[in-house]
Amino acid sequence: MTPGGRYLLIALATPLRRLFTYLPPADPDTAGTALQPGQRVIVPFGSRRRVGSIMGHSNEAVVDAGRLKRISSVIDEQSILPDSHLALLRWASDYYQHPVGEAVFTSLPARLRQGAPAILDVPRGWQFNPDGPAVDMPRPGARAPRQAELLALFENRYPATLTATDIAAAGIGNWRAPLKALAERGWVREVALNDRYRESPPLEQPLTLNRYQQQALAAIRDSFGRHRAHLLEGVTGSGKTEVYLQATAAVLEQGRQCLLLLPEIALTPQLVRRFERRFGPRLAILHSGLTDTDRCQAWLRARDGSADVVLGTRSAVWTPLKNPGLIIVDEEHDLSYKQQDGFRYHARDVAIMRAYRESIPIVLGSATPSLESLLNAGQGRYEYLPLPERAGTAKSPDLHVLDIRQSPMRGALSEGFLKMLDDNLAAGRQSLLFLNRRGFAPVLLCHECGWTATCHRCDTAMTYHKQRQRLCCHHCGHEHRRPDTCPGCGGKLIEVGHGTERLEQTLAEALPAARILRIDRDSTRRRGALEDLLRSAHSGEADILVGTQMLAKGHHFPSVSLVGIVEADGGLFSTDFRALEHLAQLIVQVSGRAGRAEHPGTVVIQTHHPDHPLLRTLTEDGYPAFAKAALAEREMLQLPPYSYLALMRAEAKQSAAAERFLQEARQLIPDTADVEVLGPVPAPRPRRSGYQRLQLLLQSPQRPRLQRILGGWLDGVEQLKSARHVRWSIDVDPQEMG
User: Fold this and answer.
1) pTM of the model
2) 20 to 30 A from 185, CA-CA: which of 18, 143, 197, 499?
3) What span, in angstroms and rounded, lies between the C-alpha atoms of 356 and 113?
4) 218/207 Cα distance (integer angstroms)
């Protein structure tokens, strides 16, 4: 019998917005066991068996008890998720209006979702046995040279315990069989490693903090043991990472753990390396680039407490910690924290709620905080911690708006800016050019009849990638070979617009002596390519770095003194009300790559709209002034963060089906709901992957009011017959309107 009820409530990874009721297992070995929330079980579901998670107990069944099925088997001897974690998942499921079963299983590593045992593999190593073999036995000699070499290594390193990595690093090849022979003879012994305390290289020492960093660290330490949200706004290069490191070290001294979230591990390698150098084997890294096994083991180490510091991307927010003490969200403004499909949670906001529920502090760090976070700090919900100066002797770069109207151009670059690049090259310094569009040209056009290469699935222009001679849709991924002539009239095809490939070609033609390095998703497809390119950038092998936003986040290029933002106009007149905020953040982040060492930095922004008011505010008065103006505009228009949104999207092969569904869904909203409903209207990208896309927007001045409406409304929407003919989703707090 289960405690608290006759029946078990099970979460399953299905799109149905409810739990499922089952009877305890019939197996006499487990039937009497007290099954607890957080244990995984195998249950019959339809014609299949599925992995489920116990969420609770009940004395009442929603269907006739005689129709209930029994749990087939129990996977876990005890719960793998603490009650606090299950409560957080329930909250997230309710808030983001997503099926609780999918929410629970999204939070688990793939192997645990598939039913693999939640067993932490104990790392093992080998150590020289000072007592020697139990019986007289000659040392390995000339007839066993590999054994002799290994034995000498262990003797010289005693009492250290060596891992497989250590042995391989010593340059001893084919060592496994000789090591096994040494262990069998008693010359070495195998021992279990405790990751927290095993020997590691000397760790990097903390840096000296300036007064602003000291004040920020003191405020964070003062909040240990209770909930407090801190907004750490520091200009690029101000030393936010050192504050993170020393705050983490302080919480570890109390025997507690720290969770650090990053927008994208691949784009912040230097920060990852600094944490590795400071905390060594006490660090567990979680991101999608790991194997399923490694990710599962890191998750288990965090849950069991053998990893003191957990560093990961968006989904790491769901990692359970045995003794949480601090959460840090780096680059809290970044769009990567918002999941754009499936379970559409925002990792930053989940982290804030998690910190509140676990009564621990959270630090939100950014050089360009989101308007939501700035408003919360202004209203006193967050403690504001400024870092207004760059660390050390580095100075903030000078920003220049370059009016390119009527300016002679060579490709995407004005002649004036090319002259600046040439001067910087002659001075022996690096330059960085940012263009957030990969490929060669965004449009392939027929000069004779006006035909353009368009994706037949999305009705959007396909980007021409010259190096691969392919046309690619950057929305759905469809691609094909570039035609030699126009398919319509046989005329000549011309490339219109500029991507990073074309910018690289323009630079090579204009500055033939320059060594150019392009870093974008195309040039980093090969595993390890990004690390190789960044190594070349730091070593001085490149004079000019060209890239997309992969160059904008978290990189420290001490030799870069000139940064050019090639096209700044794209976000100035977007239909998305957040576009200006994102553009400003990107400009500041890219600008922060300049002048981080002894050379002063210069940032040039090419634009056809030099008098745009918010662009002028940003460049003349800085991001804080821009944010203040943007918040005033949002308040006047009653846009977030002064109101709250939920976006319903519908997709169908025929737009009529999607529109009919959304119209019927709209009619289910009661007139007394006191929310503004806009739509149905076509999405900004109305066709994608062969589906017509429409959307319905709900807006309310109060978050609780919107939440109260959504739950009951969506229960009715699920019952609509028209819902069977469309793919629909709900996005609470959408960050992109398309």
Assistant:
1) 0.86
2) 197
3) 27
4) 15
